[in-house]
Amino acid sequence: MSVAQVFEKLEQNFNADAAEGLDLVFQFDIEDDKTYHVIIKDGTCKAVEGAHDDPSVTLIMDSETLKGIVSGETDGMQAFMAGQLRAEGDMMLATKLGELFNMG
């Protein structure tokens, strides 16, 4: 699965109910691929290639870590503790990803 396909899968597995009233931007800096950002606004989700001017939180990882987290094979918190995943900005928002997307 390519990184682009991972973001398509995220859009398909979006939990709109969990995003009601939210206005957030998750940026994903994929160290060995492209940067993407995911806009969550009022129950909608849109994945866009490229950087955002003002993301709520930026998650930095390689493509293998991203694929593992989205497939459910890798626990995001364990990846963070192991140094495979770094976060900049509002780190508490990163914990919301599991609610916003049906992973695995």
Describe this structure in words.
There is one protein chain. The protein is of the alpha+beta class and 104 residues long. It has a single domain (3-100), classed as 2-Layer Sandwich (Nonspecific Lipid-transfer Protein, Chain A), CATH 3.30.1050.10. 32% of the residues lie in helices and 29% in strands. The protein is built from 5 helices and 5 strands; from the N terminus they run αββββααβαα. The chain has helices at 3-12, 63-71, 76-81, 91-94, 97-100; strands at 23-30, 35-41, 44-49, 57-61, 86-89. Strands 3-2-1-4-5 form a 5-stranded mixed β-sheet. A hairpin with a 2-residue loop joins strand 2 (35-41) and strand 3. Helix 1 packs parallel to helix 2. The longest helix has 10 residues, at 3-12. It starts with a helix and ends with a helix.
Element layout with pairings:
Layout: H1 3-12, E1 23-30, E2 35-41, E3 44-49, E4 57-61, H2 63-71, H3 76-81, E5 86-89, H4 91-94, H5 97-100
Parallel strand pairs: 1-4
Antiparallel strand pairs: 1-2, 2-3, 4-5
Helix pairs in contact: 1-2
- CATH homolog superfamily: SCP2 sterol-binding domain
CATH architecture, by name, is 2-Layer Sandwich
Report the biggest beta sheet as strand number plus sense, adding barrel if it closes. Answer: 5 strands, mixed
Number of separate domains = 1
CATH class: Alpha Beta
The Cα radius of gyration reads: 12 Å
- CATH fold type: Nonspecific Lipid-transfer Protein, Chain A
Strands, count: 5
